[in-house]
Amino acid sequence: MRNSEFILQALDDCLDRVLPVSLHLLGGAALDLVYGIRRFSEDVDCMCTLSETGMIDADWFQRAVASANERLTPHGLYLTHIFDETDLVHTQDWFRRIVSPPPEAPRFRHFRYDATSPEDIILSELTRFDEKDQQDVRDLMRTRALTKADIERLIGNVHVGEEWRETWEAGLRTWRTFDV
Question: Judging by beta carbons within 10 Å of its beta carbon (0-12, 13-18, 19+), is residue 136 exposed, middle or buried?
């Protein structure tokens, strides 16, 4: 079982009711489970819309996340905090660009999941843009036939969460010289 699936299965096992909103995957888990790009990841990153925040912040769901993390800690894995859309980097219309998992992707009893678009994942990777992030970007661009120009066109339509502004600027400088 892939780490991303193992982490989400731990969450599913800890939930005692159905989450009425989808988890929107980012990063390695999205690459692994939705885009079919095998990627080792020790965590699962998710985001939610502002209207979904109430469900994600509900005590029963947060208890399940904490319980899942307790189960995952001995394996060196974890489910991160689920960010609301104001905290991250994404296009203004990210929610309309969500991608459903393929039919062969794992399913869970208590929640659904999908992924942010390849373009939104690439834009979010620019906040750190280390070697692993750069490889993720290359893999996504190759498998989704995206060009640097495709991403450049979106940069003016990007929401950058306050805590990412400095790293976003640094990532953009690296992106400008990045060789796909």
Answer: buried
Which one-letter amino acid corresponds to residue 83?
F
pLDDT-derived band of residue 64, with 50, 70 and 90 as boundaries? very high
Q: How far apart are the first and last CA of the chain?
A: 30
31: which 2 tokens? 């690459």
Residues 85 and 96: their CA atoms lie apart, in Å, by: 13
Alpha helices in 34-143 (DSSP H): 53-56, 59-72, 118-125, 131-143
Which distant-in-sequence residues (6+ apart) come within 8 Å of 167 by Cβ?
Answer: 127, 128
Integer Cα distance of 128 and 137 in angstroms: 12
129 phi/psi in degrees, rounded to 5: 50, 45
Q: What's the confidence (pLDDT) of residue 156?
A: 87
C-alpha 80/C-alpha 13 separation (Å) is: 17
Tokens 């999205």 belong to: 30
CA 64 to chain centre: 19
pLDDT digits over 96-146, tens only? 999 999 999 999 999 999 999 999 999 999 998 999 999 999 999 999 999
pTM: 0.93
Residue with tokens 């990045």: 178
Cα–Cα dist 16/60, whole Å: 8
